[in-house]
Amino acid sequence: MRLNTLRIIAAMVAGMLVALDAGAGQPSPKVATVGVLLPNPASPTIFNAFRRGLQELGYIEGQTLTLELRHAEGQEAALPSLAAELVQRRVDVIFAAGDAAVRAAKQATQTVPIVMLINGDPVGSGLITSLRRPGGNVTGITGLSPKLSARRLDILKQVVPTLSHVALLSNPDDETRTLDLQQLQVMARALGVRLRQVTIRGPDAFEETFRTMVLAGVDGLIVLSTASTFYYRTQIATLAAENHIPAIYERKEFVEVGGLMAYGTSLPDMLRQVASYVDKILQGAKPATLPVHQATKFELAINLATANSLGLTIPPSLLSGADEVKR
To answer: Which domains does the chain have, with CATH numbers?
Structure first.
């Protein structure tokens, strides 16, 4: 009896040792390396949405995931070299935010998958072949919605009923925004508003540009989010207030630094979707056949303190529908 028991115990121990030895021989899980190419330093609040999205999908930074972060500090000319650096690091996938970053990444590689995050039209600008079947090595998320820019002008008109001459601050090199401009022109004609396109390429020209707008009789401003405008959002929002020009922006981050209003896609929501695209590609999906997703969640943010300083009254209908009201 005792001999049988000893034999059973010995067999169990031997089995455990074999199992342990087999486990020790298994290769460690592959650590995915994701390159992140941004035109500006990412704010912790925004970038954490991307990190949380990856965490929710089971990735652990430092164990199963490495993030190679590169940003151009608002200088788009630096993006090509940063993109090339990520390719040299042999990253598994590149997440690129903004038209200039996506173009830089696409020029740097035709083989490394690229997940884009842009506001405009990736088809019309030639970044992809179609939303349903992008082709090439680029896919991702777009905030494309022809009604968004027109809606911003409509909101501005509600807040400033006498609105007649609106400046549009944008980057003329951003080819993804052509559809936005077309829709804005249509809405401007419908509202009886004259639209003037204005370009600011660097902070040295900010004050002069705003003086020129004032002298031209501009009584409203729409600021599209570009690498430059987002990076210098505090200065732009401050100058708009100091020159008494009511302005509406694309991102609520402008409102957080004193901007009057913002209406646009939810950036944290889009970043979580970017994380899911990164996961799909790491699991073997091909960008060429992975449909581009259009944003569906939009946010209206209003700064009441700025409205009061400009002598403006926000209509109750806008206040009740706002997602965020800064007092």
So the answer is: 32-143+266-296 (3.40.50.2300), 146-265+299-326 (3.40.50.2300)
